[in-house]
């Protein structure tokens, strides 16, 4: 990395990407911004914040005195991310579109566009670090463990990591906000975006119902007693507590209910009042094909893993590994290991890669 190298930063309108751009300027790079529009449909004007985000990105670029490009990757997003999202839900699984978006859009479509613009590097506001070695690059956890986003980046390849910079990887979030205020950035107090970008402020069920049919069915206890009706299995995920709509049930305590399993064959949602029910606890799981960023661990090597963003790292071993996937055994049973979601593997601070969860075992007799 040389001072004066040209780098294009993905400017989203948020504070993280804005401060990332400012840090690169301070480091001596020739910085330009690029705003990505990744979704558009007939409801954009009502639900999508893309125009407001672009306007803020424009203000940030003007404040930093850098050029701002704009690109529309919505067709790529529909084909490479959204189509897979619908396919997974139709199969009764719970996908994570942010992981696929990073691999297919933010580090593929964006990277290709940046290269067309003549840039050597790309950068984003992700909380992660990358170590560039002579012949390979490593994806490493951010200094701010609470904000670390390597879980969402574990599918990146060497080709995608080699030109990548993560300027926020070594600082905590509160310093990012402080730096934005010091610089007078117009978005220094702007709320962080959350949720899935293409849904916006819509109710998830209302959005998904536009694309997929969701037949209603019975909610049953593990013992088989009907306690309610579900609106479609795709709208529920393992461990879910909110939105079940189960009122007082004769013979049961006034306590919360949790989704502990899905029976796709009978279209049944299995619920229980124990947040640690044996059906929720998985001592092991199997995955689809594992993506390794660089190092491939030895089968049985002690590793760490996380099954969701911000989960503390869990001790595990990859006991079996082949071209079809892996079997992962945990030191401690994991709650709500959800097929369709992903597991990311770590050795120390290095994210080794990860895979989509295929099946799980449970502690149920």
Automatic annotation (TrEMBL):
Single biological process term from Gene Ontology: tRNA wobble position uridine thiolation
Keyword tRNA-binding annotated: yes
Every tRNA-specific 2-thiouridylase MnmA-like C-terminal domain range: 284-357
Molecular function via GO: ATP binding; tRNA binding; tRNA-uridine 2-sulfurtransferase activity
Region: Interaction with target base in tRNA, residue numbers: 96-98
Entry keywords, A to Z: ATP-binding, Cytoplasm, Disulfide bond, Nucleotide-binding, RNA-binding, Transferase, tRNA processing, tRNA-binding
Catalytic activity: S-sulfanyl-L-cysteinyl-[protein] + uridine(34) in tRNA + AH2 + ATP = 2-thiouridine(34) in tRNA + L-cysteinyl-[protein] + A + AMP + diphosphate + H(+)
GO cellular-component term (any): cytoplasm
Binding site for ATP: 10-17, 36, 125
EC supergroup of this enzyme: transferase
Site feature: Interaction with tRNA: 126, 341
Residues of the tRNA-specific 2-thiouridylase MnmA-like central domain: 205-273
Region (Interaction with tRNA): 147-149
Entry EC number(s): 2.8.1.13
Subcellular location: Cytoplasm
Active-site residues, Swiss-Prot/TrEMBL: 101, 197
Main function: Catalyzes the 2-thiolation of uridine at the wobble position (U34) of tRNA, leading to the formation of s(2)U34.
Family: Belongs to the MnmA/TRMU family.
HAMAP family, sorted: tRNA_thiouridyl_MnmA
Stated name of the protein: tRNA-specific 2-thiouridylase MnmA
Gene this protein is translated from: mnmA
């Amino acid at each position: 990395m040389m001072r004066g190298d040209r780098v294009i930063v993905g400017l989203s309108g948020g504070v993280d990407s804005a401060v990332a751009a400012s840090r690169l300027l301070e480091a001596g790079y020739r910085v330009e911004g690029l705003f990505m529009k990744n979704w558009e449909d007939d409801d954009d004007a009502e639900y999508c914040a893309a125009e407001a985000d672009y306007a803020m990105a424009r203000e940030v670029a003007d404040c930093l005195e850098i050029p701002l490009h704009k690109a529309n990757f919505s067709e790529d997003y529909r084909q490479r991310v959204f189509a897979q999202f619908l396919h997974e839900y139709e199969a009764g699984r719970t996908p994570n579109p942010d992981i696929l978006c990073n691999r297919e859009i933010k580090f593929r479509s964006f990277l290709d566009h940046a290269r067309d613009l003549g840039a050597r590097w790309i950068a984003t506001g992700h909380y992660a670090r990358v170590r560039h070695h002579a012949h390979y690059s490593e994806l490493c956890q951010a200094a701010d463990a609470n904000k670390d986003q390597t879980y969402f980046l574990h599918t990146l390849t060497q080709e995608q990591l080699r030109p990548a910079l993560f300027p926020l990887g070594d600082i905590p979030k509160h310093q990012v906000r402080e730096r934005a205020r010091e610089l007078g950035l117009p978005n220094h107090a702007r709320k962080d975006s959350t949720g899935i970008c293409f849904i916006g402020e819509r109710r998830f069920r209302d959005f998904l119902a536009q694309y997929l049919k969701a037949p209603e069915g019975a909610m049953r206890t593990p013992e088989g007693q009907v306690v309610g009706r579900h609106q479609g299995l795709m709208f529920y995920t393992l461990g879910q507590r909110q939105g079940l709509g189960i009122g007082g049930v004769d013979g049961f305590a006034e306590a919360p209910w949790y989704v502990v399993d899905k029976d796709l064959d009978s279209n049944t949602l299995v619920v229980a009042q124990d947040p640690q029910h044996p059906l929720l606890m998985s001592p092991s799981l199997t995955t689809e094909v594992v993506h390794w960023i660089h190092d491939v661990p030895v089968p049985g090597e002690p590793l760490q893993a996380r099954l969701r963003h911000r989960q503390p790292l869990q001790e595990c071993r990859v006991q079996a590994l082949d071209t079809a996937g892996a079997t992962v055994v945990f030191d401690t049973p994991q709650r709500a290991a959800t097929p369709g979601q992903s597991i990311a593997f770590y050795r120390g601070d290095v994210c080794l890669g990860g895979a989509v969860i295929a099946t799980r075992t449970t502690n149920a007799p």
